[in-house]
């Protein structure tokens, strides 16, 4: 037990958890970088799901210590407001810091990941005819959705290009809906948009009447042509295969004779690390899909280390 005000609180670096080995290694690298940045602090990794020891076990282990839980999560939803709050409620010396996002530094890393993916694929920088979509894991808590929307707006400012939002679970628009809408805008001609906000279009614009995704709607969109003859209905790449690089038109196969779209659909996953959700993003059929914020192998973005350290220090004084 150590509740001395002269001893720094334990930092419980709490990630969601994943079964993906690359995702596990990527998060481990982030925690290791935080540990190196804070040599006088006991930094302990833990998770809210999938991996162990979970946060309840860790807070029990450190019941008598001052401790700060730093969520290695991009937005504050159920895991922060419920799971983590419950895990610390039994100790007056435990606190939960803010989630990592929204923060402009995350948007800068996302912009960098898109540039890397385009460069690796031999593609040009985003142009006026392109559609950019950012996709998040999704949450039933509207506060998490608002956080993700704010980061999408920050990314739009970083890129100087409009960015639409999509979600992989629990929230709308779903990713397939957002990609259909993006292709429809390319086919019909994109409405006037503000690079830092949502589309400004009236009900008379053809893209405003986009139907819900149905087999016929998908067939109609395919008949309108997809860029370079890529068929979004073709079998998806395995997440461990070529698409796992995040630089190829994943979930697609070439179809000779199909006219090309004038623009591309570029997908930027707002995800912390490789795993189930990034595999779904790769299989969704965008023209180029970027890597998540953390990659393995690869260097840990210093922006993420900065955020973890800052959130710990901001909350440590209250523990």
From TrEMBL:
<keyword id="KW-0456">Lyase</keyword>
<feature type="region of interest" description="Disordered">
    <location>
        <begin position="121"/>
        <end position="145"/>
    </location>
</feature>
<keyword id="KW-0479">Metal-binding</keyword>
<dbReference type="InterPro" id="IPR002762">
    <property type="entry name" value="CbiX-like"/>
</dbReference>
<feature type="compositionally biased region" description="Low complexity">
    <location>
        <begin position="231"/>
        <end position="247"/>
    </location>
</feature>
<feature type="compositionally biased region" description="Basic and acidic residues">
    <location>
        <begin position="191"/>
        <end position="204"/>
    </location>
</feature>
<feature type="compositionally biased region" description="Low complexity">
    <location>
        <begin position="121"/>
        <end position="131"/>
    </location>
</feature>
<feature type="domain" description="Rhodanese">
    <location>
        <begin position="111"/>
        <end position="176"/>
    </location>
</feature>
<dbReference type="Pfam" id="PF01903">
    <property type="entry name" value="CbiX"/>
</dbReference>
<dbReference type="GO" id="GO:0046872">
    <property type="term" value="F:metal ion binding"/>
</dbReference>
<dbReference type="InterPro" id="IPR050963">
    <property type="entry name" value="Sirohydro_Cobaltochel/CbiX"/>
</dbReference>
<feature type="region of interest" description="Disordered">
    <location>
        <begin position="191"/>
        <end position="250"/>
    </location>
</feature>
<dbReference type="GO" id="GO:0016829">
    <property type="term" value="F:lyase activity"/>
</dbReference>
<protein>
    <recommendedName>
        <fullName>Rhodanese domain-containing protein</fullName>
    </recommendedName>
</protein>
<dbReference type="InterPro" id="IPR001763">
    <property type="entry name" value="Rhodanese-like_dom"/>
</dbReference>
């Amino acid at each position: 037990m150590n509740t001395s005000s002269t001893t720094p609180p334990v930092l419980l670096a709490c990630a969601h958890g994943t079964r993906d080995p690359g995702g596990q290694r990527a998060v481990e690298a982030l925690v290791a970088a935080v540990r190196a940045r804070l040599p006088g602090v006991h930094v302990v990794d833990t998770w809210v799901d999938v991996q162990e020891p979970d946060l309840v076990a860790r807070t029990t282990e450190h019941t008598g210590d001052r401790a700060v839980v730093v969520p290695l999560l991009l937005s504050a939803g159920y895991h922060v407001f419920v799971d983590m709050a419950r895990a610390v409620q039994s100790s007056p010396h435990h606190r939960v810091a803010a989630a990592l996002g929204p923060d402009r530094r995350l948007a800068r890393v996302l912009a960098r990941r898109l540039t890397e993916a385009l460069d690796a694929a031999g593609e040009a920088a985003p142009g006026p005819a392109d559609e950019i979509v950012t996709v998040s894991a999704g949450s039933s808590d509207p506060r998490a959705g608002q956080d993700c929307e704010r980061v999408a707006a920050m990314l739009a400012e970083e890129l100087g290009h409009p960015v639409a939002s999509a979600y992989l679970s629990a929230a709308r628009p779903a990713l397939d809906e957002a990609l259909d809408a993006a292709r429809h805008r390319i086919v019909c001609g994109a409405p006037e948009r503000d690079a830092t906000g949502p589309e400004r279009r009236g009900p008379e614009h053809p893209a405003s009447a986009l139907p819900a995704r149905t087999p016929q709607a998908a067939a109609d969109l395919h008949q309108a042509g997809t860029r370079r003859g890529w068929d979004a209905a073709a079998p998806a790449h395995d997440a461990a295969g070529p698409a796992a690089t995040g630089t190829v038109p994943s979930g697609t196969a070439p179809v000779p004779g199909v006219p090309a779209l004038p623009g591309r659909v570029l997908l930027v996953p707002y995800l912390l690390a490789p795993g189930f959700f990034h595999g779904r993003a790769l299989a969704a059929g965008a023209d180029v899909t970027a890597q998540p914020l953390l990659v393995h192998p690869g260097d840990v973005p210093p922006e993420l280390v900065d955020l973890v350290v800052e959130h710990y220090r901001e909350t440590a004084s209250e523990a």
